[in-house]
């Protein structure tokens, strides 16, 4: 029997989710904005140079940054360039190692201000080392722990960047992220907000799955039930991520005795209970945006295109927010 948990932030469930056709406000505006966005991505010089001689011998370790999905992350220096090196164990299968390196090569073609830059990858014994752009303000989960709930104006910019990053992955790179959550959204002191740790390599995703036990809190109901993973599964994770950033609380993880809810309890809630909602104290347009992300039925859940057409997203496009000044307070080397 599942024990009821207290709800200190007042998150509410959504018994009356609105039908999908009420979520699209202005498709023509969306199409125009997306055409402009894709043109900007095509013309912007956001792709780091490919470095052919990456190896541990050519990298100086500055300090440890932490643990990412399935591997350790370190700040390293290549000549005068700082980068983040992530090491993921993949095993001794030579054929598999070469396949992963080949699949990762697609990242050299990524040109978006909303996606982490990729310098290259190399093999080190039975591990793959990925070298990516270093973001000096860290990930949103660390910022959330240090600074508390994200201010609403900053949150709008973060949501805008996450949605644009997902659209770029889907429409241009033909990639589903598969692991969207605050720890996979990173920011720098220039105010850039970027997605990282997305599923570009199926074999690397499988290797991580065998070495890393992650949280299921951001998983969509259909994924927990063994259904196909789709773009809509990422949108569910987006909705849960927004609630966490706005409230500093994860839905379903409340406890009256200061103990975390068990993973089976969480998975039961995701599948069996109504979707969570933001409290009424948040702006209505933002609450409707989150509701659109969190339909239990993926066929009713908003697509990235429909999210872009919603009033809240259009509002964030018009706001001029100094993200850099806010982010700089969390800057490390």
Automatic annotation (TrEMBL):
PROSITE patterns: PROTEIN_KINASE_ATP, PROTEIN_KINASE_DOM, PROTEIN_KINASE_ST. Its EC number is 2.7.12.2. ATP binds at residue 86. It comes from Schizosaccharomyces octosporus (strain yFS286) (Fission yeast). Residues 59-313 form the Protein kinase domain. GO terms for molecular function: ATP binding; MAP kinase kinase activity; protein serine/threonine kinase activity. It is an enzyme of class 2 (transferase). One of its GO terms (cellular component) is cytoplasm. It catalyses: L-tyrosyl-[protein] + ATP = O-phospho-L-tyrosyl-[protein] + ADP + H(+); L-threonyl-[protein] + ATP = O-phospho-L-threonyl-[protein] + ADP + H(+); L-seryl-[protein] + ATP = O-phospho-L-seryl-[protein] + ADP + H(+). Keywords: ATP-binding, Kinase, Nucleotide-binding, Phosphoprotein, Serine/threonine-protein kinase, Transferase. PANTHER family: DUAL SPECIFICITY MITOGEN-ACTIVATED PROTEIN KINASE KINASE DSOR1-LIKE PROTEIN (PTHR47448), SERINE_THREONINE-PROTEIN KINASE STE7 HOMOLOG (PTHR47448:SF1). Pfam families: Pkinase (PF00069). Gene3D superfamilies: Phosphorylase Kinase, domain 1, Transferase(Phosphotransferase) domain 1. Belongs to the protein kinase superfamily. STE Ser/Thr protein kinase family. MAP kinase kinase subfamily. One of its GO terms (biological process) is signal transduction involved in filamentous growth. This is mitogen-activated protein kinase kinase.
């Amino acid at each position: 029997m599942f024990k009821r948990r207290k709800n200190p932030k007042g998150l509410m469930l959504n018994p009356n989710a609105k039908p999908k056709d009420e979520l699209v406000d202005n498709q023509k505006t969306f199409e125009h904005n997306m055409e402009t966005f894709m043109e900007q991505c095509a013309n912007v010089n956001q792709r780091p140079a490919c470095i052919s001689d990456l190896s541990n011998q050519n990298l100086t370790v500055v300090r440890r940054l932490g643990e990412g999905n399935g591997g350790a992350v370190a700040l390293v220096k290549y000549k005068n360039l700082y980068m983040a090196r992530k090491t993921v164990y993949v095993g001794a299968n030579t054929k598999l190692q070469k396949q992963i390196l080949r699949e990762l090569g697609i990242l050299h073609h990524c040109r978006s201000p909303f996606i982490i830059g990729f310098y290259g990858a190399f093999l080190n014994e039975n591990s793959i080392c990925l070298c990516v752009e270093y973001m000096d303000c860290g990930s949103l989960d660390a910022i959330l722990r240090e600074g508390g709930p994200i201010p609403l104006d900053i949150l709008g910019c973060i949501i805008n960047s996450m949605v644009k990053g997902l659209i770029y992955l889907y429409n241009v790179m033909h990639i589903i992220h598969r692991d969207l959550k605050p720890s996979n959204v990173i920011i720098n002191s220039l105010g850039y907000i970027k997605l990282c740790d997305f599923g570009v390599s199926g074999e690397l995703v499988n290797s991580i799955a065998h070495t890393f036990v992650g949280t299921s809190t951001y998983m969509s109901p259909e994924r927990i039930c063994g259904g196909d993973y789709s773009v809509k599964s990422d949108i569910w994770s987006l909705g849960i991520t927004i609630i966490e950033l706005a409230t500093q609380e994860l839905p379903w993880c409340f406890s009256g005795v200061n103990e975390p809810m068990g993973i089976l309890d969480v998975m039961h809630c995701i599948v069996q209970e109504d979707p969570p909602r933001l409290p009424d104290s948040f702006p209505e347009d933002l609450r409707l945006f989150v509701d659109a992300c969190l339909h239990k039925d993926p066929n009713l859940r908003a697509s990235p295109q429909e999210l872009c057409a919603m009033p809240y997203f259009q509002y964030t496009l018009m706001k001029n927010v100094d993200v850099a000044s806010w982010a700089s307070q969390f800057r490390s080397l």
